[in-house]
Specification:
Blueprint (H helix, E strand, L loop, with lengths): L4 H13 L3 E2 L11 E6 L2 E7 L9 E3 L4 E6 L4 E6 L2 E2 L6 E2 L2 E6 L5 E13 L2 H13 L8 E17 L4 E7 L15 E7 L1 E22 L1 E4 L2 E4 L6 H9 L9 H4 E5 L2
Length: about 260
């Protein structure tokens, strides 16, 4: 059975842009301080820590940048320059062709990006740990501490082992520059595409998360380091479970830190 589009996309984003995670669905509103659960590589919002009495200040990046990736080995991207049709009477707009050879591949491009983050994550972590010790904050909850807002976002996810899409630049001037936030693309043709979002403006496609975490898993008197011990999904379930002791002293062995 094919994997869900959300899983394909969020896993591809996290793998390529770690420690950032994908916002799914890409148009969903997000704010700093939102908290929720992480299922695989997907964040599911439950609320905002301000409703729990926590406060923080934010900071923003001074400039803008762009980010683009295509799943390595299973996604090919080719650009065609502007050309003229027979006799020069009709113009052919510059185009971007994306072809997939796997049903678990994605293309991602954002431009005009501004980074927004909680200014003092350690101070927020102290507040979270105090709530946790009062049993007013669950260990499995993660908090949005970083956001990346984009002026334009393009996302293409394969719908099968043989999929393709051709995007044309709106207008006919110049070549396609994916770092240009003013670039607008139109779909010329597509085949077997599972999900597409083309030249959408003013979205928040990426987020960073912090969570209460431990360095060790304890089994009776024996402890073992987390790294290299078990798959990430299994470790997450074990570390968040009430059935497994993960530290000798929560006050010293747990910390609110970035999910990587």
């Amino acid at each position: 059975m094919s994997a869900a589009i959300a899983d394909i996309y969020t896993e591809a984003v996290h793998e390529n842009l770690r420690p950032l995670y994908a916002n799914w669905e890409p148009s969903a509103p997000l704010e700093l301080g939102d908290y929720g659960e992480v299922h695989g590589s997907t964040f599911v919002r439950l609320g905002n820590v301000k409703r729990l009495g926590l406060g923080f200040k934010s900071r923003a990046s001074p400039g803008e940048d762009a980010k683009t990736f295509a799943t390595k080995g299973t996604c090919d991207v080719s650009l065609s320059a502007q050309a003229r049709a027979g006799g020069g009477s009709a113009s052919v707009r510059p185009s971007l062709e994306i072809t997939f050879s796997s049903d678990r591949a994605a293309f991602f491009s954002v431009a005009g990006c501004r980074y927004l983050a909680i200014a003092d994550k350690a101070a927020l972590g102290d507040q979270v740990m105090r709530l946790f010790q009062k049993k007013a904050f669950l260990r499995r909850w993660a908090v949005v501490t970083d956001l990346l807002a984009a002026k334009t976002t393009t996302i293409i996810v394969s719908g099968g082992a043989s999929a393709s899409i051709v995007l044309e630049a709106a207008g006919s001037s110049g070549a396609i520059d994916l770092a240009d936030a003013k670039l607008k693309l139109d779909v010329r043709r597509q085949q077997n595409i599972g999900f597409q979002l083309v030249s959408q403006g003013r979205l928040t496609p990426l987020l960073g998360l912090c969570k209460i975490q431990s360095r060790f898993l304890w089994f009776g008197r024996e402890f073992r380091p987390v790294l290299g011990f078990a798959p990430a999904a299994a470790l997450g379930a074990m570390s968040d479970s009430d059935e497994i002791c993960t530290e000798q002293s929560p006050a010293t062995d747990l910390a609110f830190s970035q999910l990587l």
